[in-house]
Amino acid sequence: MSRIEEQESLSKIVGVVVRSLTRHSDPRGWLMELWRQDQLPQDFWPQMTYISQTAPGVARGPHEHVDQADYFCFLGPGTFRLHLWDNRPPSTSYERYEVFELGEEQPAAVIIPAGVVHAYQNISRGPGWVINCPNRLYRGEGYAEEVDEIRHEDDPQSPFQLGRAR
């Protein structure tokens, strides 16, 4: 059993890990560990990191990756509704749909393996931040590759709609 499988996860989708993050506070402010090399199999080690800000009510996705795994950190400001659909036919959780509310009140790190369709929507009154530490470089080294993404959000016939299971 790998270290990732040993981690307690709130998700029942195979390979998805939803892990609570701990905010360590003192009079100076707070600190939160987002990922540790000793808690993550090498296949999921980040190759880059970025932060995005999402306006209230706005959704990003649904989309999926062919090879990339995302490592989202929802820690605030803001709260997000995360939607996950297992789109991997060989998976024992194929077609499973889950929704989580994560962020300021419930900080969490989420590993989303390739083939799991995902979207998140800012359900806060103000802007929200998400940090992502994917295991692949966006568009490859030197931005020389195609984007590893299958976008479903522009297809009105897509079975992957926010708030609706397949």
Automatic annotation (TrEMBL):
The record marks 138 as: Participates in a stacking interaction with the thymidine ring of dTDP-4-oxo-6-deoxyglucose. GO terms for biological process: dTDP-rhamnose biosynthetic process; polysaccharide biosynthetic process. It comes from the Bacteria. GO terms for cellular component: cytosol. One of its GO terms (molecular function) is dTDP-4-dehydrorhamnose 3,5-epimerase activity. This is dTDP-4-dehydrorhamnose 3,5-epimerase. The lineage of its organism: Bacteria, Deltaproteobacteria, Bradymonadales, Lujinxingiaceae, Lujinxingia.
